[in-house]
């Protein structure tokens, strides 16, 4: 079975004018389709850095990161953006919804960047919201939704 994410010997060091701070050192990880993985650790242990590398938002200093079998270091910025848009989703502790947009419009934002037709975006947003139990809430703004409903909009 092909892994959806594979890290081989990933290391990441930061230098903000002081001594180097190594947050990841020789990390290897394979994630198969359908596998559930939890990244845990103390504050400052490198969890966010690891997630940013797996999400194609940051690059390691050494090692290889493969997403769907592709070495992300060899991809152009546009190709990385396409992978993020089509294959990677983050669920943030804060939902990062745009307060002036409806639930449906918040869900449709990634499809705008994918140049999807407006009617397709609306239909897909309605389908996703319905699958997450938010049918009838498509036109509500985030401030009109509960915290759990906002999180489901973010997931959609």
From TrEMBL:
Residues 24-156 form the ABC transporter domain. One of its GO terms (molecular function) is ATP hydrolysis activity. Gene3D superfamilies: P-loop containing nucleotide triphosphate hydrolases. InterPro entries: ABC_transporter-like_ATP-bd, MacB-like_ATP-bd, P-loop_NTPase. The keyword Heme does not apply. Belongs to the ABC transporter superfamily. This is ABC transporter ATP-binding protein.
